[in-house]
Design brief:
alpha/beta, Rossmann fold, 2 domains, seven-stranded parallel sheet, 13 strands
Length: 380
């Protein structure tokens, strides 16, 4: 679906660097594809280093990129980024605010029409991962931002139906009338199905491994699988993780794959892991990790924890994964039984790919974005 010819310019604001894993798969892929559909895009991001080649690539698509210096980490740095973004986007016709920090900038800027892109229940996730202390000043401020965004945003995008329900519960039903669910999207042209690689079983844990993930549970699962057959356990994570002590005690292949290398890496593995901590509470209601869509698009099953409610529903209905976590009623031996059975299922790859095409396709997601922008501009 191409955009309405006279659709207003969309100013897309993200606090994530474009060269980060999230920035590459969930920002860059979106804005480039939007530009090809005729959406006029201004892009504001916060970078550690500006990639000149990337700038020329975006310019060639007609995207006006305004990279800003990332600056300090922590609350002071975050406030600085919000204030800078608010100053840059003042007067914008339509703002796409990716996450709560960008939403704060949109509200400070005074723009009239803006989309709140809820990538997570941000405050809950920061508290659950130990980045923010419950009851702290930062937590109270960002909870206020969430509440104001729920009421003041023109439209809302979430990754899950559960996120809409939770925000409605918190704020008296104001979100669902203006919400659209566009789950984590994957470029299906980059992630294609391929035959399962030869044995041993290759298990992949990829991404930024912070304390939001339950690496101990995943290590236990790999250990149980190793009790039955040879396993090559691969951890692909940029830099130092929050789980170095635990990873040091196991046999593991450590690599640092770039976003561009992920399709080939996933194709060399048999299954992926995406197990979050079940004690992280309601924050998981809004979560749909990117790696789930990437594994499915490649025809590979995924292990997820029970708290990822929307992912669990999809994987169980389509028989494309196994549910196991610290609160799972399934015993670890039973979970591994399910994995072994799944890996010899001749219809597995086709089911996984079909699920990716119906729920995680980038082009389908962009259809929803275009409709949202047109609605915000009064065309629908």
């Amino acid at each position: 679906m191409d955009a309405t010819p006279d659709l207003a310019t969309v100013t897309y604001v993200s606090m994530d660097p474009l060269t980060s894993t999230v920035g590459s798969s969930q920002v860059l892929a979106y804005v480039e594809r939007m530009a090809r559909r005729g959406v006029d895009v201004d892009l504001v991001t916060f970078e550690h280093d500006v990639d000149a080649d990337l700038g020329r690539r975006l310019s060639g698509l007609g995207i006006r990129w305004m990279p800003q210096r990332f600056g300090l980490r922590g609350p002071v740095g975050g406030l600085g980024r919000v204030l800078r973004a608010a100053w840059i986007i003042r007067g914008a016709a339509v703002v796409h605010a990716r996450s709560d920090m960008a939403a704060a900038a949109a509200m400070l800027s005074g723009v009239d029409r803006w989309v709140w892109d809820v990538r997570s229940l941000w405050v809950d996730q920061k508290v659950a991962s130990g980045v923010m202390r419950s009851g702290s000043f930062s937590e109270r401020v960002m909870s206020w931002v969430e509440r104001r965004a729920a009421f003041r945003s023109t439209a809302v995008i979430t990754l899950t139906e559960s996120a809409v329900a939770e925000l409605d519960r918190r704020y008296g039903g104001v979100v669902s009338p203006k919400a659209r669910v566009i789950t984590t999207c994957v470029d299906l042209d980059r992630f294609g199905t391929s035959p399962m690689p030869p044995m041993p079983v290759r298990v992949l844990l990829a991404g930024t491994l912070n304390r939001y993930y339950d690496v101990r549970v995943m290590l236990n699962l790999v250990s149980e699988l190793r009790n039955r057959r040879p396993v090559e356990f691969i951890v692909a994570s940029p830099g130092i993780t929050d789980w170095e002590e635990e990873l040091a005690g196991v046999e593991v292949v450590r690599i640092s794959a770039t976003p561009g290398e992920m399709p080939d890496l996933v194709s060399t593995c048999h299954l992926g892991l995406s197990v979050c901590r079940d004690d992280s509470g309601v924050s998981q209601l809004a979560a749909m990790p990117t790696k789930i869509g990437e594994f499915l698009a490649s025809g590979r099953p995924v292990v997820v924890n029970p708290g990822l409610i929307d992912a669990v529903d999809l994987l169980e209905r389509h028989e494309c994964g196994v549910v196991y976590g610290s609160t799972s009623p399934t015993e670890i031996g039973e979970a591994v039984d399910q994995l072994e059975s799944m890996l010899v299922d001749p219809g597995l790859a086709e089911r996984c790919r079909s699920l990716a095409e119906s729920h995680f396709d980038l082009d389908r997601g962009l259809d929803g974005l275009v409709v949202t922008y047109e609605s915000v501009c009064g065309y629908r």
